[in-house]
Amino acid sequence: MTLLIVVGCILLLVLLTTWGKINAFIAFLFVSILAGLLLGVPLTGITKSVQKGVGDILGSLIIVIVFGAMLGKLVAASGAAQKIAAVMMKIFGRKYIQWGLMTTGFIIGIPLFYNVGFVLMVPLIFSVVYKYKLPAVYLGLPMLAALSVTHGFLPPHPSPAALVLQFHANMGLTMFYGIMLAIPAIIIAGPIYSKTLKGIVVVPLKTFQSDDLPEEQLPGTWNSFISALLPVIVMALTTVCVLIFKDNPSVTSFAGFLAEPSIVMFLTLCLTTFTLGIKMGKSMKEVMSIYGDAVKDIAMILLIIGGSGALKQVLSDSGVSKEIGDVLAGLSIEPLFLGWLIAAVIRVCLGSATVAGLTAAGIIAPLMINSNVNPELMVLSIGAGSLMFSHVNDPGFWMFKEYFNLGIKDTIRSWSIMETLVAVVGLVGVLILNQFV
C-alpha cells in the first residue's frame, strides 16, 4: 500500500505540472502535504518535514547555484565562453567536440561535487551550443553523464566515500574498479545514447547567451580557462594538501574549509570579478548588474529544487525507505544484485542518490557478515543502483529540465533514461567483474 501511495503521488505531480500547467513549486508543496497525510505523518510533522526539506536542499545548494549562475553569466558576457568554445573546437574539431566535453566532465567530476560540476559545466556546454548551432541535449548529455557517474561510483563523493568506510573496502581498489566501470557506462549513456536525441530542439536558458565579440575584445586563453575552471583547481589542490599533510591537523582543517563547495564558488567569484570583469574594462557597477540579472534568471529554478526537497523529506520521514528495504532484504538473490536493487528502488521512490546509497548500505551490511561478497564491488553496485531513473522527485532532474528549458517528456526521454543506462551498465559491469576478482 505504501508503495502505491508513493507511485500515486509521483504520478499526480506529473499530471499537475504537465496536464494541469501548475507551477512546479506549488505542485510540489501540494503533493508533499498530500503524501504526508496519506502516509500517516502527524499533521505537525508534515509542516516540519516540508520546511526542513526546503531548507536542507536549498541550504546546501543555493550558494553553489547562485554563484554558479553569476560565474556563468560573467564568463559569457566577458567573452571567456566564446574563447573557450573556440579553443575546444580547434582541439577536438566539430566531429569530436562532444567527446571532448565528455572527457572534460569526467576529469573535473572526480574532485568536484556533482552540483558544483553541473553549474560550472553547463555554461561551457551552452557556449559551444550557441556559437556553433549544435543540438543542446545531444551535446551536453555525455558531459553530464560523466559527472553523474563520478558522483555515484567514485570516492571522494559523499555516498561512495561513506560506503567504503561502512564496508571496510579499499579506497584505491574502489577507485580503480570504479573507473573501469565508469568508462563503458559513460560512453553508452553519453555519446551512443545521445545520438537518438538529436531531434530534441530547445532554446536553453538564456542566462549564458551573449553576442559574439571581436577577437581583440576577448580575454586571453589562459585567463578564460583558469577563471572558468578555478573551482576544479582549488578542489584538486586541497585534495593534494590533505594527502601530503595528513598528519598536520591545522593544514588539513584549512584545506577542508577551502574545499567546501560554497567557499570554492565564493573565492572563484571574487577572483573572476577582477579577471573577467574589472581587468576587461568593466566597472564594478556593470559586473554587479550582470550578477543581478543572473539571479533573476534562476530564481524559479531554486524554488522548484526547494519543492523537490520538501517531497523527498516527507517521504523520508514517513519511513518509506526502511519499509521498502525490509521487504527487499527478505528476497533470496545474489547479494550484489540485491544491494543494487534496494538502492535503485529507494532512489526511484525518494529521488536522492545519496539517501538511496546510504539507506541501502545500512540494510545490506548485516547480510555481508557471513558472505564472501567483495566489499569494493558492493560499494559500486549500490552506487550504480543509487543513480537509477532520476525523475520528478529528484532535484537533478529539475536542474537539467530548467537549465535546458525542456518539457517533462523530453527530460525523461533524455536525462532519466541516461541515468537508467548508467545504473544498468554499472550493475552489469559489477557482475562481470565479480567473476574475475
Automatic annotation (TrEMBL):
Keywords: Cell membrane, Membrane, Transmembrane, Transmembrane helix, Transport
Major location category of this protein: membrane
Subcellular location: Cell membrane
UniProt keyword Transmembrane, yes or no: yes
Protein origin, superkingdom: Bacteria
Transmembrane segments: 30-50, 57-76, 96-129, 136-154, 174-193, 225-245, 257-278, 298-316, 336-365, 377-392, 412-433
Molecular function terms from GO: gluconate transmembrane transporter activity
KW Iron (keyword) present: no
GO CC annotation terms, alphabetical: plasma membrane
Topology with respect to the bilayer: Multi-pass membrane protein
Family assignment from sequence similarity: Belongs to the GntP permease family.
Protein name (database record): Gluconate transporter
Taxonomic source organism: Pedobacter steynii
